[in-house]
Design goal:
The chain is mostly helical. It folds into two domains: about 60 residues, Arc Repressor Mutant, subunit A; about 140 residues, Four Helix Bundle (Hemerythrin (Met), subunit A), CATH 1.20.120. It has a two-stranded antiparallel ribbon with strand order 1-2. A hairpin with a 3-residue loop joins strand 1 and strand 2. Helix 1 crosses helix 3, helix 4 packs parallel to helix 9 and helix 5 runs antiparallel to helix 6. The longest helix is centred in the middle third of the chain and has 22 residues. The radius of gyration is 20 Å and the shape is elongated. It starts with 10 loop residues before the first helix and ends with a helix. About 30% of the residues are buried. This is GntR family transcriptional regulator. Keywords: DNA-binding, Transcription, Transcription regulation. InterPro entries: GntR_C (IPR011711), TF_FadR/GntR_C (IPR008920), Tscrpt_reg_HTH_GntR (IPR000524), WH-like_DNA-bd_sf (IPR036388), WH_DNA-bd_sf (IPR036390).
Amino acid sequence: MLLPTLKPERLYRQISSLLIGCIRKEQFAPGAMLPPERELAKQLGVSRSSIREALIALEITGWVEIRTGNGVFVTNPLPKTDAPLVEDEFSLKSLINARLLYEGMTAELAARNGTDDQRAELQEVTHDLIQLHVNDEKFLHEDKRFHLLIAEMTGNEVLAEMMEYLWNKRKSSRFLRLESHYAENDFPREMNQDHANITQAIIERDPQRARACMERHIQHVYDRLFSEL
C-alpha cells in the first residue's frame, strides 16, 4: 500500500490549525477574546513570536481580528469556508534572521569595496531617508534604495540580486499585516538613526563597525515586530 508523503509543517501553521480547532469546538466562541500572547505561548510551550505569526495568518484567513492594544478576537460570524493558510514557504522570524546574517556581511563588504561614487550616493540616500518620519510607501521606497545600494557596493552582482530577493519577500501579505499592527508610525525615526550609523561606518571604511551597525539595525526591526516584552 502506498502511503502519502508527509510534509513538515511550519510551527506557526501548527499553532494556527490548533487554534482553528479550538474555535470550531467553541472553546473560543465567535466574538470572544483569545488569551493574551504570553498566556498562549506558555500553554503551548512556544515563543510569543510564533504565536504572533499564527495570529497574523488567522487574521488574513478571517478567523480572528487583531485590535492592536485591545486584544485578539474571534470573528463573528466565522468564515464560511476554510481558506488555506497563506504563504507557507517561510516564517517571518526566519526571514528577518536571514537578513540579519546576510546584511551584516554585505555592509562589511560595502565598507571594503564601495567606490567613491557609491559612497556619495549612499550619503544622498541616507539624507533623503532622514527627512521621512512616517512609515509609508515613500519611506519604504527609500529604505529599499538604501539596502540595495549597500548590496551593490559589495562589488558582487549575485549578492545584489540576493538582496533584491530578500527584500521582495517582505512584500508578503503576512509581513505587511505584521508591520501594520506592530510597526508604529514613528518607526522610521528609530530606523533612520540606524541608517545614519551604518552609512557613517561605510563612509569611514570601517568594515567591522559597518557589520555591527547593520546587525544592530536588523535586530531593532526584529525587536519591534516580535517583542517578547
